[in-house]
Design brief:
Number of strands: 71
Shape: globular
Radius of gyration: 44 Å
Structural class: mainly beta
Length: 1459
């Protein structure tokens, strides 16, 4: 059965929505103004109309009808162009009570026209009924609401005064461009409207369902939007699901036949041309061509198209094709002349299937539009000849149809659907004038059912349908299957296989065509007719101007996208005559030039739009300047315990104890006072005194026993301390309620404890000899604003206990001789617990911070004086300038020797005397003299003499062996390097000339070389200016060549000015000084004769050495050497190098050379991060940046809000994205994996200035790669897991440690010998007590060398057990005694069993006996003792009854209520 639908049978629901959704488009000038203001993105707005208050009832309505009702009407209005647009919204009728009307209406709309001229006009009307029963509306006043004043976002409460008259007064010419109407219109006394206007970003998810500039209420029916139980579906819009469908076997038949229809269409166009154009001999040669036939298919919800309609290319189908075309063509009527043969096309069809997505709603419609593309040659007025191949194209809609698939109960049985194609001026969702010909309709023959009409036939089926649908299959099941499987092509049936040549399912469906794609030559056969005139010739000054047959305005109901507005604006402003189209291409034709294919596939290769995405991992939060202080107030007992341990005091130069500062009070920072301190030397002291253990679930109370520290202060080398033992003092009694700190004591090499010297002291000396010129300001800023990151490690298991940060601002002396401060710092670690297992290797689902302990540290700063020699050296260094001035030659060169007495003014450092080379016949050139220079090359004399002696010995040996003709070896000096050459005696004269030229060239280059030394640190830019002078009397174009990419010429004028202001360099700034050419050696500069210019240079390196002295473990320095710190770092710095900058003239000869000597300087580390990750997998991590005020340099008021990051390892991807102002910003890292237990260390530099002069922060990041082991287990029950430990080259004594010994037991638990290349199996017994995803660690450590051999990352997926019984108990708060209860347990077995009792909260619940034995069927009373609590609340405690194998027999849940 074939289903046929007519326009009259369409869904009334869609028609109702369509009629209500028709609107007036905004003026084009307003749209262009918004585009020019870059307002292209639509924003959602919410308008709440509360109530209207009037001093008295309007006279007209009070006299006519006391019980009159009132209505509020709202419309958009363009104030500048005096134009009403959009759709008028009407409220429900309201009555006035006590001179007040309460509306409580919430309106929503979205618009991209965020201009001050876009306003809302609100009119109050009185409704009454006429005598004939019709409704009469009488205006009572109006008001104007400004939506976007000064282009800002709408927000705030509004109180609007009503004005007399009608809103039509706004169209008066005197009120054009008036901002405040109150000055020209009279307000109604004491009558105002209260409303609230604010932005509504939630509308962004449903903007495709509603056109712009449409006012809708919360109760409006918007198909595609799920209804809300609260009645306001637009407050938090929820979209209905999109279901994939397939359109297949689509054909279009036009009456009386395809050939007759198109022929008559061309005749009508030509007839219209003859009526509008004067016939001439030239116009008779013109032809109109049907270039292409297209079908637009879109999904419409009554308001707008929910997605851009797809455009397909139609093909004429001949009746001779097999299959369905024959069956369809039998119903077609032949033309009157009978010319339609077997090869004549009878219908239009699609080669491929079409995928669309529908919403299961009765008001959703599929709209079809038949469109033809016409083209015609351009006439004489366009300055082209009549025989030119250039053609102009225009589009015309001929027919349209629509289908509401969900209006009635759908039946997806694979039946064919037929729709009548409509034409004429009826309202349609396309908003276009559709072609309609009375001749065509009258010429159509009649059939049994009446007049034969134009039809479109197709099959619509869910995309998930694989075979022919069964009648027993429900529609809902198929729709659900389609939604789950997504868009999938339907397999062809048997009938489709018969017409495979026409309907190929594998053929891709064509993309949308733009006007720019109409410029390629067509290879598709066209149909044409002669024409004597072209009606669109005068209306098409260019390709992009719409024709007379195209729509003159936008559809009244369709939404206009901002991108389309931009395209139309660009089209209207394009007026070049050479841009006319020549023809329309066929997208599915393969026989095309490669250039045309690339142009046609432009839209197919467009980039996908990125959607907002929130990463699953939480960012790592930086500490220090962005987090609160980790310091806490020590208790009185803790302080007494520390002072009784006998730690050494911090004293000044006079032996007095340093002044104590309170670490809990703020410290002022006076940079001027600190810089002018007469005590130039600072001895910074860190005393690590004690460590307080904190109870942690799964870890014993005596852990850790030995610890060590790792940290880095300023730009000193990283420090790894020796082992420190935690001991309790014998003088203070330990209390069970309050944990006391354990005194840190160093361990000797033999393992004994050094009790004579408690604590660990590390000193750093910072004086003028250590600091670079101008660095003291940055050092003081470092102390005032930064913290020092300290990692605390267990020296036995090499597991990280936690990290803390010491505030360095308490080390500022403020003019005092010495200061000290005592800190009690919380040692924090991050525990990752989530609800899901780790699937991507990222263990940061739900991070939680755990306090592992408290570290007691005393910091101090002891001032000291320096010798006069050091002060003079510093003063001399501070006179360093950023301008490099070459040494000038005051006299000319009269000739002769280069070092004659006539030019004594030459720089001795840059000159060398060239002497004639002496050659002896019998010895060849081996005994020639070298270059003699008493200053620069004096050290080469001894070297040459040594080489000559060796050559003499070699010659004597060869002569003794009879090798008279042996080759002679000589050394030719090239600068400072000797190059061995092997030559024959006959060639000595030739090489002698070469040696002369090279020596003279090297000597001349050395004479024009100016050395410059700089101290570079990681990420910091070193700025310098080289004074370049043209030594010639003619102009020269000089090319600047640099042999290292880290040194570059600053060619950007703004960047040059920035560095000049930053370094306070007093030199002139010149714009557009350099000329850049592609393929040149470097930038070029034009110099006048004898002119001198400053060449700005910048050296900046982001790469450094990442070598680590030790992978992991404490150092073995004796206590006496623990405070000796080297002042130069041999690793983690930029590489030392010498860079040559050559300034070459036009002939290629250098006129000046700048030799930049780079000396590495350590950099400051602001933050240290340690990350753990599975081996050989990519680490993807986000690190949260601190706020702007923390990153911006002190005194830098012009810092731009732009963050950029760089990484010291080029193999690591490091990037950040600019978000909205005020939003947090993250640095995203992607680190390639390494084998376990490798540690990858690198630096991340964060820049806040545009030109990246110096990093605001430098982060040191360690990534520990470990072997990953996934374990699935149940809380309270023991699970076993096997690990394999492989030996290496040497035998080792190994012991395994776990991060949670009470939850993970490793067998063997003691020290064992691991042979070389041996294999040791490890047994893990995992018994967790908390459900969720957890991360635990196991380390295999060499106990002799204290080195990490292998590390495992245990990813636990812990499930809750099945509860057997549940109990509830109440415990009073602050009773001090707790509560005791009993639970009876019966042995369900017939034999004797032994049971173990466990609790997941051992601190709250204790058992009378942890182990008991029962005979078969015997009962036992479990004694429970609940600990008291100091606060009210409730907690659930699980009680596990396990067997001897730690398998859970029963699980009880006890809910404890503390009241």
């Amino acid at each position: 059965m074939v289903k046929t639908e007519d326009f009259s049978s369409m869904a009334d629901t869609w028609r109702d929505v369509f009629e209500r959704g028709r609107l007036i488009p905004p003026p084009g000038q307003m749209v262009r103004q918004a585009v020019d203001s870059h307002l292209t993105q639509s924003r959602g707005v919410q308008l709440t109309i509360n109530r209207l208050t009037a001093a008295h009832r309007p006279k007209e309505t009070s006299e006519a009808e006391p019980d009159a009702t009132y209505q509020l009407r709202v419309t958009f209005f363009d104030r500048n162009h005096q134009y009403f647009f959009g759709r008028t919204w009407k409220s429900s009728p309201q009555k006035m009570k006590n001179n007040k009307m309460t509306f409580n209406e919430i309106l929503y709309f979205h618009t991209s026209l965020r201009l001050p001229s876009n306003v809302l006009v609100l009119e109050l009307v009185a409704l009454s009924t006429r005598s004939d029963g019709s409704e009469q509306a009488l205006g009572q006043g109006f008001t104007v609401l400004d939506l976007f004043p000064n282009k800002t976002e709408p927000q705030g409460d509004r109180r609007l005064n009503l004005l007399h008259g009608s809103p039509r007064v706004l169209l008066h010419p005197l009120l054009k461009d008036i901002v405040d109407y109150s000055d020209h219109l009279k307000a109604i006394n004491e009558t105002h409207l209260e409303c609230v206007l604010k932005g509504h970003p939630a509308l962004a998810s449903m903007m495709h369902l509603l056109p712009e500039n449409v006012l809708v209420s919360s109760s409006e029916n918007i198909p595609g939007l799920a209804p809300s139980p609260r009645g306001d579906a637009l407050l938090k819009p929820m979209l209905l699901k999109m279901l994939p469908f397939t359109l297949s076997r689509l054909t279009i038949s036009l009456q009386p036949s395809l050939e007759a229809f198109e022929s008559q269409l061309l005749q009508l166009i030509n007839a219209d041309c003859q009526n509008t154009q004067q016939s001439s001999q030239e116009s008779s040669l013109k032809t109109v061509v049907i270039q292409e036939r297209r079908l637009h298919v879109g999904v419409h919800n009554g308001w707008c198209f929910i997605d851009t309609p797809q455009i397909m290319v139609l093909e004429p189908l001949c009746s001779g094709v097999k299959g369905r075309v024959d069956s369809v063509s039998k119903h077609n009527t032949q033309t009157k002349d009978g010319s339609a043969g077997s090869l004549a096309p009878q219908m239009l069809g699609l080669r491929s299937n079409l995928e669309i997505r529908l919403i299961n709603h009765q008001a959703i419609a599929v709209v079809f539009q038949l469109e033809y593309v016409f083209s015609a040659p351009i006439v004489r007025e366009t300055m082209l000849s009549a025989t030119s191949t250039s053609r102009a194209a225009f589009l015309q809609c001929l027919r349209w149809a629509m289908l509401c698939p969900f209006h009635e109960q759908p039946n997806w049985k694979g039946e064919e659907t037929q729709l009548v194609l409509q034409g004429g001026s009826k309202p349609n969702p396309l908003g276009l004038m559709v072609y309609n010909s009375a001749t065509t309709e009258s010429a159509a023959p009649l059939s049994t059912s009446g007049t034969v009409q134009d039809m479109i036939k197709f099959r619509l089926s869910p995309s998930s349908e694989k075979t022919t649908s069964s009648p027993k299959t429900s529609v809902r099941t198929k729709l659900d299957n389609g939604s789950r499987q997504g868009r999938s092509s339907s397999s062809p049936t048997q009938s489709q296989n018969d017409i495979h040549e026409v309907f190929s399912p594998e053929s891709p469906w064509g993309p949308k065509l733009s006007l720019s794609q109409l410029t390629a030559t067509s290879h598709y056969p066209t149909m044409s007719n002669s024409s004597s005139g072209l009606p669109w010739q005068q209306s098409l000054p260019s390709l992009h101007q719409p024709s007379l047959t195209a729509p003159v305005q936008w559809p009244s109901h369709a939404a206009r996208s901002p991108s389309l507005c931009v395209q139309r604006h660009a089209q209207n402003t394009h007026t070049e005559a050479g841009s006319f189209v020549s023809s329309v291409p066929h997208l599915e034709m393969d026989i095309q030039p490669e250039r045309d294919k690339t142009h046609l596939l432009k839209h197919e290769e467009d980039q996908l739009q990125e959607l907002p995405f929130t990463p699953v991992h939480a960012p790592v939060i930086t500490v220090g300047v962005t987090t609160p202080s980790l310091s806490t107030v020590s208790s009185r007992s803790s302080l007494a315990h520390l002072y009784s341990a006998g730690f050494p005091n911090i004293v000044d130069l006079r032996g007095q104890v340093a002044e104590v500062l309170d670490a809990t009070e703020p410290v002022p920072f006076d940079p001027h006072r600190e810089e002018m301190d007469p005590l130039r030397e600072n001895l910074l002291v860190f005393q690590f005194l004690a460590f307080t253990r904190m109870p942690v679930v799964g870890i014993g109370p005596e852990w850790p026993a030995n610890i060590y520290f790792t940290f880095q202060f300023y730009r000193f080398p990283p420090v790894t301390s020796q082992q420190l033992r935690l001991l309790y003092s014998d003088k203070v009694q330990q209390k069970a309620s309050e944990p006391l700190p354990c005194v840190l004591t160093s361990i000797n090499n033999d393992g004994s404890v050094n009790s004579d010297s408690p604590g660990l002291q590390v000193q750093f000396r910072v004086d003028d000899s250590f600091l670079k010129p101008g660095e003291k300001h940055w050092f003081l800023r470092y102390l005032a604003l930064h913290t020092m990151h300290v990692d605390i490690w267990d020296s036995e298991s090499l597991l990280l206990i936690g990290s803390t940060a010491i505030e360095l601002k308490y080390m500022l002396r403020h003019g005092k001789m010495a200061v000290q401060a005592l800190h009690e710092l919380e040692v924090l670690t991050t525990d990752y617990v989530g609800e899901e297992t780790l699937q991507t290797g990222d263990a940061s689902n739900n991070p939680s911070t755990i306090v592992r302990g408290r570290l007691h540290v005393r910091t101090g700063n002891i001032g000291g004086s320096q010798a006069n020699l050091s002060r003079r050296t510093t003063d001399r260094l501070q006179s360093h300038s950023h301008i490099i001035i070459p040494h000038e030659v005051t006299g000319g060169f009269p000739g002769g020797s280069l070092s004659t007495r006539n030019i004594l003014q030459l720089n001795v450092k840059n000159t060398a005397q060239a002497e004639r080379l002496q050659v002896q016949e019998e010895r060849g050139p081996a005994d020639r003299g070298g270059i003699n220079n008493s200053t620069s090359f004096s050290w080469e004399k001894s070297k040459l003499e040594s080489v000559h002696r060796k050559l003499q010995c070699m010659a004597a040996v060869h002569q003794k062996e009879g090798k008279k003709d042996a080759y002679k070896t000589t050394h030719v000096m090239d600068g400072t390097k000797a190059i061995p050459l092997t030559i024959q005696p006959s060639s000595s004269i030739f090489f002698e000339d070469i040696s002369k030229a090279e020596s003279i060239s090297n000597m001349l280059c050395h004479a024009i070389t100016t050395p410059h030394q700089l101290f570079a640190s990681l990420g910091s830019a070193e700025y310098m200016e080289f004074v370049l002078k043209n030594p010639f009397n003619s102009p020269q174009t000089v090319t600047i060549h640099i042999n290292d990419p880290e040194l570059s010429v600053i060619t950007n004028t703004k960047e040059w000015q920035y560095f000049k202001e930053l370094t306070k360099t007093p030199s002139l700034l010149e714009e557009d000084m350099f000329h850049l050419e592609e393929g040149a050696l470097g930038p070029k500069i034009y110099l006048r004769p004898k002119e001198s210019v400053h060449i700005p240079l910048k050296y900046q390196s982001f790469l450094c050495d990442h070598n680590m002295s030790r992978t992991q473990g404490p150092s073995f320095l004796p206590p006496s050497k623990s405070s000796n710190v080297a002042k130069k770092i041999v690793s983690n710095m930029v590489a030392a190098k010498t860079i040559k900058v050559s300034f070459k003239a036009e002939n290629g000869d250098p006129i000046a050379i700048c030799q930049v000597i780079v000396e590495p300087s350590p950099h400051v580390v602001d933050q240290t991060f340690r990350l753990y990750h599975p081996e050989l997998t990519f680490l993807k991590k986000a690190i949260r940046l601190p706020p702007w005020h923390a990153l911006t340099a002190v005194g830098d008021t012009n810092a731009e809000a732009k963050i950029s990051v760089r990484c010291s390892d080029p193999n690591i991807i490091c990037q950040t994205r600019m978000l909205a102002p005020g939003e947090p910003q993250d640095v995203h890292l992607k680190v390639p994996g390494s084998p376990s237990p490798n540690i990858k260390m690198f630096f991340v530099m964060v820049f806040t200035d545009k030109w990246m002069a110096a990093p605001s922060q430098i982060w040191q990041i360690y990534v520990h790669f470990m072997e990953r082991v996934d374990v699935s287990c149940i809380t309270g029950q023991q699970s076993c897991q096997s690990l394999v430990l492989r030996g290496r080259q040497a035998a080792r004594k190994v012991k395994c440690f776990s991060s949670h010994p009470q939850e993970i037991e490793v067998k063997p638990g003691g020290v064992f010998m691991l042979p070389p290349a041996g294999v040791q199996e490890l047994q893990l017994k995992v018994q967790p007590w908390r459900a969720g995803s957890r991360i635990l660690y196991v380390n295999a450590v060499d106990v002799e060398q204290k080195q990490l051999i292998t590390a495992w990352l245990l990813c636990l997926n812990v499930h809750r057990p099945v509860l057997s019984k549940a109990f509830e108990v109440c415990v009073p708060v602050s009773s001090g005694r707790g509560s005791s209860k009993k639970i009876t347990y019966v042995n369900p077995y017939t034999s004797s069993r032994t049971y173990l009792l466990h609790s997941d909260h051992p601190d709250l619940l204790q058992f009378k006996e942890d182990k008991f034995q029962l005979d078969g069927g015997e009962s036992y009373t479990i004694g429970l003792r609940f600990a008291p609590s100091q606060s009210a609340g409730s907690v659930e405690i699980l009680v596990y009854v396990n067997n001897l194998e730690e398998k859970t027999e029963e699980t009880f849940c006890v809910k404890v209520n503390y009241f």
